[in-house]
Amino acid sequence: MSDTKNPNTLNFEIDEGKYKTLYRRQIFRLILTYVLPLLLLILFFQIEYDKINKESTILHLKSTAETQAQTLDLFLRERVVNLLNLIDDPRFEENILKNNIDVFLDKLKKDSEAFIDIGYFDSSGIQNLYSGPFPNLRNINYSKEQWFQTLISNSQRYVITDIYLGFRNLPHFTIAVKKYSNGKISILRATLEPIKIYNFLLSTTVFRDVLITLVNKEGKFQLTNPGLGKVLETSPFRPPQEPKVGFSEAIINGKTFDFGYCWLTQTNWCVIASSEKQNLIVGSSFQKTTLIISLFTILFLTFVIFVRAKKIVEFEKEKEIAEMEKKLARLQLEHASKLAAVGELAAGIAHEINNPLAIIASEAGLIKDLINPDFKQNITFSDLIPHLDNIQQSAFRARDITRKLMTFVRRDDLKLDYYDVNQIINELLEGFVEHELFVSNITLEKNLQPNLPKVWVDANSLRQVILNLLNNAKDAITGQGKITISTFQDGEFVYISVKDTGCGISQEQMDKIFLPFYTTKPVGKGTGLGLSVSYNIIKSFGGTIRVESIVGKGSKFTIVLPIQNKLQ
Amino acid sequence: MEEKKIKLLVVDDEVQFLDSITKRLELRGFEVTKATNGTEAIDLARKKKFDIALVDLKMPGLDGKQVLEILKSEHKYIEVIILTGHGSLDSAVECTKLGAFDYLPKPYELEDLILKLKEVYKARLEKKFRDDKEKMDKIFQIALGNSPIAILEELKKLDDEEK
After folding, report:
1. Contact A191/A172 with Cβ under 8 angstroms?
2. pLDDT score at A4
3. CATH code of the domain in which A539 resides
4. In this structure, is residue A77 part of a structural domain?
5. What is the DSSP annotation of A7-52?
């Protein structure tokens, strides 16, 4: 009995490492389920938002450049028309002859404040007449100037120059117009203030963050924001010639500037609308707000996940503890019922042991008598041998019974394995049941199907269940009767049935027989644990117990065991 | 032992036990007849008068209780001692209510059995003596005021009772 375990000292420890792993897994799983999709959504949203913002910024820069270019074109055309009006005026020749060019300048200045001065040329290229703040420019020969040569050689009646420093050494640009009359060419030339034009352009710009500049074909600044460079310096903006309206990028002081551009139709200028920022339209605050809200949501969600994972782990732990306690209680109950079942048999077993003891006592006494001289038996050694043999046999008989009893009562841990049901039944019957039934006038019939497939069970537990059913069958029989124990296979299952010709079970009793502590046996005889524990044992093997009974005729209990146990 | 041997019927399905106890009792002057089951015992009792029957309680076929009932119903003066190896004494006690003189749990000391046998035999003799005396009184009563034919009839009735 030294290997017998007390059910209270069963292994009852919680594997903490398992729960740490479970905790980590839960967090990982929950984050994967809830946080990751949200993160991806936020990322997607941010990327899409940036894309849309950039697209709309580009669109805006382009349209700004286009609008400004159109405005500038219109402005320049108006200025050309101003000059053409003067030169085409019938009184033009008259005024020239009178040297009255100041009148022209007054008129021009009324049209636009951008006009600085005005001069008159003939085909020689010498500025014959001049009105404006630089009188020393009069009589200077402009015939080598590019604008002059272009105007003379081209069919177009006007020319608009790039911005240049010229003789006066100040940034300005020129609009010149020509007229042929009487085979003679007259040229009127006005210079304009770029700053005035620039201010005009800026006044029509909507966004502060958009910088407007003007470059020429060579990429030189014509008009510029002081932050980007100086007039006539080479600009970082290199708008392509084609298409006329478009979008590009430039790097200034290490910063990437997006810019929209539009080439003018009147001259080789290009309006550049540039911005360092890409979120020109909606602004960054909205994006920032959504980002912060998202981050807080994620933070909160993560917190909730951690709390939740902890709860889940605690719940699982409690469940395991409860299950362990349940298992422990079940084991204790099983053991108790096993003892009870043995107790029910105890009387029978006592009989089995007392009989050989009686033989031993009796034979020993007889030998004493035989060698007692008083009885004058003249006994020889060989006369004694059969009696001594009987003593020995009886001692072994008693030993076998106690041994078998012990193997049954021993409290082992479950040893699940494939067992031959027939072998278990035969061992059990040979142990003490067969003889017990024999002396109780109960016929035992065995219908064991040979070559049954083995089933995955614990032999001790199954033995207990069968013994229990046999005990019940025996108790159900008063006087003579018959118990039939059969085994057979049907499909995926092995069946063990114990049939008796006893009193049977009423419908009312039938509802309760599997309940613990329900018994129909007299007080002290049954504990009411047998069937309920038996049922639990068979259930733990993935099987079940079926009952059929007719009152007065007998009952049949059938254990159904799956051959392929799903629980293993 | 006295001049007359006490006639015993021992009924037990354990042959080894039956043989040894028989031999031991015979050595002590008892006249012992063996039976290995209830039916055999009842048959033997019908053929021969026994003073005392030692009957094992648990036997295949007729058990001790049934044998006790049959013997007691068939023989007026037979006394029965129930032997039992059974752990619980409930059924043995029940047997004494059914008419067994006493019971003896197995295994037992032979001296106890012999003591008991003598006790039973004495009680049986006393009972027989009492009954005989009663019978004599009755016969005397009958003989007092009856015709010879009536006396014969009454005597026959008494004999029938006795068996």
Report:
1. yes
2. 41
3. 3.30.565.10
4. yes
5. GGGS-----HHHHHHHHHHHHHHHIIIIIHHHHHHHHHHHHHHHHH
**Whole-angstrom Cα Rg for chain B:** 18
Q: Cα–Cα distances in Å, from A69 out to A120, A250, A267, A393, B130?
A: 29, 20, 10, 128, 156
Q: Which two tokens stand for residue A424?
A: 């278990």
A349 contacts on B by Cβ (under 8 Å) = 87
Residue B151 has pLDDT above 80, yes or no: no
Phi, psi of A551 (to 5 degrees): -60, 130
B13, A361: Cβ pair inside 8 Å? Answer: no
Q: Tell me the two tokens of residue A74.
A: 């219109």
Domain count, chain A: 2
Is the pLDDT at A3 greater than 50, yes or no?
no
Tell me which H or E stretch contains B113: helix B110-144
Task: Tell me the pLDDT of chain B averaged across its residues.
Answer: 85
B108 neighbourhood in chain A, CB within 8 Å: 358, 361
Radius of gyration of chain A (CA): 59
CA distance A336 to chain B (A): 21
Strands (E) in A369-490, as ranges, are 416-419, 442-448, 455-458, 481-490
- Which residue's entry shows tokens 């609308």? A273
Contact A76, A196 (CB under 8 A): no
What's the token pair of residue B66? 């049934």
- Considering only CA atoms, which of B65, B59, B47, B66 is closest in space to residue B9? B47
Residue, of B118 and B159, whose pLDDT is higher:
B118
Task: Give me A544's structure tokens.
Answer: 């079940």
Q: Is the pLDDT confidence value at A347 over 80?
A: no
A360 contacts on B by Cβ (under 8 Å)? 107
Helices assigned H by DSSP within A89-204: 92-97, 102-111, 146-153, 194-203
Q: Using one digit for the tens of pLDDT, what is the confidence trace for B78-93?
A: 999 998 877 566 777 8
B132: CB partners within 8 A, 6+ apart: none
**Is ipTM over 0.85?**
no
Enter the pTM of the model.
Answer: 0.46
State yes or no: pLDDT of B111 exceeds 80. yes
Measured between alpha carbons, how far is A258 from A248 in angstroms, rounded to an integer? 6
* A85 lies in the same domain as A228: yes
Look at chain A and count its residues: 568
Look at residue A523 and tell me whether its pLDDT is greater than 70.
no
> Cα separation of A258 and A254, whole Å?
13
Query: Is A345 among the domain residues?
Result: no
CATH of the domain at A81: 3.30.450.20
Given CB atoms, is A355 within the 8 Å cutoff of chain B? Answer: yes
Are B86 and A347 an interchain contact pair (Cβ–Cβ within 8 Å)?
Answer: yes
Cα separation, A423 vs A408, in Å, equals 15
User: Which residue range forms the structural domain that includes residue A103?
Assistant: 48-281
Any bridge partners for residue A184, and if so which?
A: A181
Chain-chain contact of B86 with A350 (C-beta, under 8 angstroms): yes
Which of B81, B77, B111 has its CA nearest to residue B96? B81
Give residue-wise pLDDT tens across range A164-209: 888 888 888 899 999 888 788 889 999 998 888 888 888 877 666 7
Look-up of token digits 């035969």: A426
Q: Is B111 on the interface with A (CB under 8 A)?
A: no
Task: Report the 3 state secondary structure along A479-512.
Answer: CCEEEEEEEEEECCEEEEEEEECCCCCCHHHHCC
The CATH number of B7-128 is which of 3.40.640.10, 3.40.50.2300, 3.30.40.10, 3.30.70.1730?
A: 3.40.50.2300
B115 by DSSP, 3-state: which? Answer: helix
